[in-house]
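Budget justification aside, the reviewers requested a transparent look at the raw inputs and outputs of the sequence design task funded under Objective 1. We therefore reproduce one unedited record. The lines immediately below are the structure tokens for a 295-residue chain.
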């Protein structure tokens, strides 16, 4: 299936995701706030660039978006040159931003009034997953709209599922981030404990990774954690943004998230260490700093 699509936001995730759409044969128009990045994308993948989100969305059957925060999403959708001003009747807006469920529901309502569809579709899998076309996508929206969009989204996914009405995708992404926060803290504590106990932590991981303690974080991050390398992966500042969304939603639905709140404060410590752009696995660096200070 070849369609006319637009992609708004060519950051670490959006750049390769839009590339997969082009490689799948879709006619892709892109917009990025930094025009040079859009020019780089069109130089690599073809397609065309647009001067504004509204221009990118014009005549597109599907408009994809992947920006940073609620405020960025509001700007590129509802701003003076926002995509919602250029959306065609019957088109589908697919938002891959990790944002709040509140804004997802708000934008879905506005889209319905303007006679097009909105799907909140945050992703998991990181930069490598985007590059390899192996992302997991969690969706909220109307079933009919999802059924139309899913074959197009499939260009860069290994798993895509509709979880419920508008906001359900964002709520599921919150569950994802809550779980990751706990796993990374547990792995960091385990590795720090192994070193303090005089064990070879690499050998320990080789053994326990074959049992119930195994996780994606253990398989993919233990070596860089132990080597003290954190200049890669998902940045602490973005994880704190995501955890703030989780904690805010929990205040509304009365969920108890004591571990998530604690890990968020640990990430604040990492930021104070200069690790704002470090990978989320840098929770280990915080523990090693404390161990070395107190040892």
């Amino acid at each position: 299936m070849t369609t006319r699509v637009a992609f708004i936001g060519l950051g670490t995730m959006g750049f390769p995701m839009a590339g997969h759409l082009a490689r799948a044969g879709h006619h892709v128009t892109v917009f990025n706030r930094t025009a040079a990045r859009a020019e780089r994308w069109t130089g690599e993948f073809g397609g065309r660039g647009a001067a504004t989100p509204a221009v990118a969305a014009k005549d597109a059957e599907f408009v994809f978006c992947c920006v940073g925060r609620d405020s960025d999403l509001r700007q590129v959708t509802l701003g003076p040159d926002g995509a919602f001003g250029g959306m065609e009747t019957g088109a589908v807006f697919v938002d891959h931003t990790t944002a709040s469920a509140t804004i997802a529901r708000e934008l879905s309502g506005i889209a319905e009034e303007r006679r097009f569809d909105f799907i909140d579709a945050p992703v998991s899998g990181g930069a490598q997953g985007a590059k390899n076309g192996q992302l997991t996508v969690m969706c909220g929206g109307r079933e009919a709209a999802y059924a139309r969009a899913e074959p197009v989204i499939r260009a860069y996914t290994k798993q895509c599922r509709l979880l419920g009405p508008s906001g359900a995708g964002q709520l599921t992404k919150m569950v994802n981030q809550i779980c990751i926060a706990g796993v990374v803290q547990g792995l960091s504590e385990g590795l720090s404990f192994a070193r303090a106990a005089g064990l070879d932590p690499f050998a320990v991981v080789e053994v326990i990774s074959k049992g119930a303690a195994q996780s994606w974080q253990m398989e993919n991050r233990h070596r860089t954690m132990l080597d003290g390398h954190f200049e890669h992966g998902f940045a602490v500042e973005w994880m704190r943004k995501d955890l703030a969304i989780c904690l805010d939603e929990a205040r509304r639905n009365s969920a108890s998230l004591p571990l998530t709140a604690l890990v968020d404060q640990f990430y604040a410590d990492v930021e104070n260490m200069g690790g704002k752009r470090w990978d989320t696995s840098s929770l280990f660096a915080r523990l090693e700093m404390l161990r070395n200070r107190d040892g």
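Residues 184 and 281 are 6 Å apart (CA to CA). The radius of gyration is 20 Å. Computational costs for records of this kind are itemized in the attached budget.
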